[in-house]
Amino acid sequence: MSKKPSERSDKKVRIAFIGSGGIMNWHVDRLKGTQSEIVALADTSKKSLENIKSRQPHLKDVPEFESWEEMLKEVELDAVEIGSPHTVHYEQICAALDKGLHVLCEKPMTCSSKDARDIIARTKKAKKIVAVSYQRHYQGGYRFLKQIVDSGKLGKIEYVAAFQAQEWLKLTKGSWRQTQALSGGGQFNDSGSHLMDMLMWTTGLQAEEVSARMEFFGTEVDINSAVNVKFNTGALGTISIIGNAPAWHEDFTIYGSEGAIYYRNGKITYQTGMGQPTLDLAHAPDWMDPDKNFVGAILGQCEIGCPPEIGLRVIEITEAAWRSHDKNGVPVKVERS
Questions:
Q1: Which residues touch 278 (CB under 8 Å, ≥6 apart)?
Q2: pTM here?
Q3: Do the beta carbons of residue 120 and residue 312 sit within 8 Å?
Q4: What is the pLDDT of residues 118-159, one digit of tens each?
Q5: What DSSP element (H or E) covers 76?
Q6: Domain match, 149 and 190 both
Q7: Is the bond into 246 cis (omega within 30 degrees of 0)?
Q8: Does some domain include residue 327?
Q9: Do residues 166 and 122 both lie within one domain?
Q10: What is the pLDDT of residue 337?
Q11: Which residue range forms the structural domain that includes residue 124?
Q12: Are residues 231 and 207 in contact, defined by beta-carbon separation less than 8 angstroms?
């Protein structure tokens, strides 16, 4: 979206939260110091509303609502930030756009590619900003990876390997994240979607064919996933999402015809040439964050960093992985119509 001066560039952007659970505290912190104000909070859980106000004392007098629909009717707003269960994101984004509001939504944007494509169409029609809160787009290390790929220094991308391990099964036990009707899927659709987003954003690749096997460990949703991918350029890739791990670990590797770059828990190693020494790089500085970018884009100060098209690419590959698993790992085509 091109830069466009906001009609309210001299005033604060009035933001309401749809969902006030733990992750929204990060959004509150990131909004501090921006040209914005949080003017309303909505959540079906009274405890979540009490917790966020306890942790963020400056919000103690902010009006709160059990119904997000009622909030949208009663409060004058410019934008909403959505941090609700995944399966209601689509309805809430559409309602906000119908009210003429900008939207920043937690991942995943939607739980189906059909809904994602509809949101893209609605966004263009409404001429509003819709952004997905994939924070890695703003982090210096991942931006450096994308810069190296875009420069052509790795040559033609031939293989990518993405690995994420997290104690997700234990940490989300008893929560809505392990309830299919609310989460839409498990670890692959939740924090694992960050990994798929980075895979495609840093490389520019699009998945064409996916083969997947998943383990549910007796829950309603996927916990561990082993996925093979063929991309539009002929490049191959593997995605490993481990939700039953003892601790956090993340690896991301891009192999090209002229070199490779490795991202290991925040440490970057860049290697070129057969037998050439590796270069360990300090973590590059961050650009900004999803919330500062969101407010800045509304005010016409910067480009939006993570538009809804990125949310579509992520759910396309996610859906394909689920369909392949349901067919006992048989390769399936990524649907784009």
A1: 269, 270, 271
A2: 0.93
A3: yes
A4: 999 999 999 999 999 999 999 988 999 999 999 999 999 999
A5: none
A6: yes
A7: no
A8: yes
A9: no
A10: 66
A11: 13-135+290-305
A12: yes
